[in-house]
Write a structure and sequence with these properties.
Helix content is about 35%, strand content about 20%. By secondary structure, the chain is α/β, with parallel strands linked by helices.
């Protein structure tokens, strides 16, 4: 694999953002693209530093884009930056101008962990017809589908969450359940996959999300494993995500 480390100007955010991009040695011509999103406390370097992503995708003939999504949950904040625009349509446009990759919906994939799991679903469901597959690993999937007040959060984090989502995002552009219903009605629903470890603090959150999706009749693959909210679990999980997407990851 060839690794590109780049910075580029994001008009949606109004500053320079970083990204790491893995490209097969054979070049990117008409290849499929995976957008791989990080969690709340990380940046665009974390997947490359903490997982075996480069080794796994050696056999996948796939361009992997790992962008910096800040702490914005990959959505356009009620008060603040438009991270949904930046890591969604804007980034796709840039990547497809930088590299000669496929521009067809079935050839775009998106996945992420924790905040990035929510982000992968939010970007896929709010941009129907853009991504063919979307995968969430240990995602904070219910954060936009209920009032955000949480007495267990620190005051600073509570203020940050409210600035992004508002006091009650139910039914808004942040609500994955609402977005899934709208996307399904458009007949452009991507294939969806989710996983969460049984010892993860977000396990109940994921259980609730899956229950609601089943009640709504929206197809989604759901798996659980013996694991927590950590890189040991996510590194072990990534080959499963790639196989579900139709690739054959290296051992």
């Amino acid at each position: 694999m060839i690794e590109f480390q780049t910075t580029y100007y994001s008009a949606a955010i109004g500053l320079q953002l970083g990204a790491r991009i893995l490209v097969p040695e054979s070049g990117p011509s008409s290849k499929r693209t995976l957008y791989l999103l990080h969690g709340l406390s990380d940046d665009h370097s974390i997947w490359h530093r903490r997982s075996s992503v480069e080794r796994y995708v050696e056999t996948c003939d796939l361009v992997v884009v790992m962008p910096n999504g800040g702490r914005g949950f990959y959505t356009d904040a009620e008060q603040g930056a438009k991270w949904g625009e930046a890591i969604g349509p804007e980034l796709i446009s840039k990547v497809e101008s930088w590299f000669n990759v496929s521009t067809h919906m079935p050839d775009r994939y998106i996945a992420g962990l924790s905040m990035g799991g929510y982000g992968a679903f939010r970007l896929a469901l709010s941009n129907p017809g853009t991504y063919g597959h979307a995968a969430s690993m240990s995602g904070a999937l219910m954060i936009g589908s209920q009032p955000v007040e949480n007495p267990l959060r620190s005051p600073d984090v509570e203020a940050e969450i409210r600035r992004i989502f508002g006091l009650n995002p139910v039914g808004s552009r942040h609500d994955l359940l609402s977005l899934a219903a709208t996307c399904s009605a458009s007949n452009l629903l991507p294939k969806l996959w989710m996983d969460c470890g049984t010892a993860d603090f977000l396990f109940e959150n994921n259980q609730n999300f899956y229950k609601h999706m089943v009640q709504m009749g929206i197809p989604i693959n759901y798996e659980v494993g013996d694991g927590s909210h950590d890189w040991e679990y996510w590194n072990r999980l990534l080959p499963n995500v790639l196989r579900w997407m139709g690739f054959t990851p290296a051992a």
